[in-house]
Amino acid sequence: MKVYYEATNQNTFEYLPLTFHIKEGLTDREFGKFEDTYNNPDKNDNLVKYPAMGKELWIVKPGENTNRGCGITVCRELSQIRSIVQNNMVNGKKRSYII
């Protein structure tokens, strides 16, 4: 989808949500990008701005293909998202997250 929108000179994120794939917990570079976007939404050109909307809602879900809808959480607060992402070991296996 991203390739299509870029090829047609359209902003991908007017159609698809901004996404971060966190593989290494809170120290992951992608998590840093997410935090920057969370803390400074006006500086991110990829976010679609909705003036009437308050603080953003974020969907946090396991990054593995086998989640089958389990473990999906809707968050508003950074502290809640940090709490989920810092727990990147489940049953002895490393877990990634999609925000």
SSE layout:
Blueprint (H helix, E strand, L loop, with lengths): L1 H6 L13 E2 L6 H11 L18 E5 L10 E3 L2 H9 L2 E2 L2 E2 L2 E2 L1
Antiparallel strand pairs: 1-6, 2-3, 2-6, 4-5
Number of helices: 3
Contiguous uncertain segments of 5+ residues:
50-54
Element string (H = helix, E = strand): HEHEEHEEE
Question: Helix amount, in percent?
Answer: 25-40%
| Radius of gyration (Å) | 14 Å
Strand residue content = 15-25%
CA-based shape: globular
The termini sit apart by 18 Å
How many DSSP E strands? Answer: 6
- Biggest sheet strand line-up: 1-6-2-3
**Sheet of most strands:** 4 strands, antiparallel
Short description:
The protein has 99 residues and is α+β, with helices and mostly antiparallel strands. The protein has helices spanning 2-7, 29-39, 78-86; strands at residues 21-22, 58-62, 73-75, 89-90, 93-94, 97-98.
